Amino acid sequence: MTPMLTAEGLTRSYRRTLALDHLTLEIPEGEVFGFIGPNGAGKTTTIRMFATLLRPTSGRCTIAGIDVVRHPFAARKLMGYMPDHIGIYDDMLVEEYLMFFAAAYRIHGRERDRVVDDVLALTDLDGKRNAPVRALSRGMSQRLGLARVLLHDPKVLLLDEPAAGLDPRARIEFKELVAELRNMGKTIFISSHILAEIGEMCTSIAILEAGKLLYSGPISEVRRRLTEESGRVLKIRVAAVDGKTIDDALDLLRAHPLVSGLREEGGAIFLRLKLTAEDPSPIAAELVRRGFALLHFSEEEIGLEEVFMRITNGVVA
Ligand SMILES: Nc1ncnc2c1ncn2[C@@H]1O[C@H](COP(=O)(O)OP(=O)(O)O)[C@@H](O)[C@H]1O
Ligand SMILES: [Mg+2]
Questions:
Q1: Cβ neighbours of residue 29 closer than 8 Å, sequence gap 6 or more
Q2: Contacts (Cβ under 8 Å, ≥6 apart) of 44
Q3: 272 CA → ligand 1 middle, Å
Q4: Three-class DSSP labels, 126-141
Q5: Which CATH number fits domain 231-312: 3.40.50.720, 3.30.70.100, 3.40.1190.10, 1.50.10.10?
Q6: Measuring CA to CA, how many Å separate 313 from each of 163, 230, 248?
Q7: Above 60 in pLDDT, residue 316?
Q8: Which of 44, 54, 207 best tests ligand 1's pocket when mutated (most atoms within 8 Å of CB)?
């Protein structure tokens, strides 16, 4: 099957700045792809090339097999691009704003009313139809931006830093909307400078730094590789019974043959297993045998921030 998005040696310089250096990627249809990198990494440059707004210095990129430089009109029909800040249409009402852009996509008459109704419902902005664009909260204007790029029912969404500046509630709503769009079969490319901000909604990620791709792959694979390299982490809580303290538990665990390291945080013990340790249950058994009441014993998923820090420190090539 043709991948939905590809970059082959995609490169862009601005005078002396090499903003993107030979990016090669393949993104299958239906992925939610997180494009992660610090400010200045080259994310916007990449997205603008996919969006036909910027010409590559060399290399190429395709959408559904279509070369975006050679066939920009065909590529634009397939894609909805949401820039990192939406333009200034503050005096318009929400409905007018969408009607205006639908007309720009040459959607007219009854079809236009229907499409605008659909995107308003999908983005949960029905109740804001007659509100001025300027009166929307950050989360709502983000959803309006999405409603706008959905008008022509594109297969691919290119979203540049869509979660930046959203409060936690708006971020949850945004995440739900992304899940819904994914269920509709859309391929979604999302950039962010914070992995934790979008990591949970992504099926795959790429990490970019100073124009160079450091890593790309399924998020589950990143976690698995890093866990294999460093050992799994357990989270344990014990109750102090019979005069025993958490320090006694720490001493006991520190000396345990399956344990390579540990720390205490907020009353919980985080313990790193040795790479050779397969079954951690002897640790639980030992705690119970020594008279500790075991309140919690689970394996921790590696945190996305840790993933990011370790990849950008060159741990994963
Ligand atoms: N129009 C431009 N002219 C000159 N340099 C630019 C221009 N746009 C971006 N750059 C430079 O290219 C690099 C990548 O920028 P950008 O793609 O905006 O990164 P990101 O979106 O990841 O923050 C940065 O060093 C930036 O300063
Ligand atoms: Mg940017």
A1: 1, 3, 4, 155, 185, 187
A2: 84, 160, 191
A3: 40
A4: HHHCCCEHHHCCHHHH
A5: 3.30.70.100
A6: 25, 14, 35
A7: no
A8: 44
- Where are the extended beta strands (E) located within 99-227? 156-159, 187-192, 204-209, 212-218
Ligand at shortest distance from the CA of 38: 1
Residues in contact with ligand 1 by the CB-under-6-Å rule are 14, 17, 19, 37, 39-45
CATH architecture of 5-224: 3-Layer(aba) Sandwich (3.40)
Q: Which ranges of 255-300 would DSSP assign to H, the alpha helix? A: 281-289
Provide the CB-side half-sphere exposure for 253 (13 A, CA).
31
Residues 78, 152 contacting (CB under 8 angstroms): no
User: Cα(214) to centroid of ligand 2, in Å?
Assistant: 17
Summarised one tens digit per residue, pLDDT across range 132-188 is 998 898 899 889 999 999 999 999 999 999 988 888 889 889 999 999 999 999 999
Q: Where are the domains of the chain?
A: 5-224, 231-312
Find tokens 């036909």 and name the residue: 52
8: pLDDT strictly greater than 60: yes
Reported pTM:
0.81
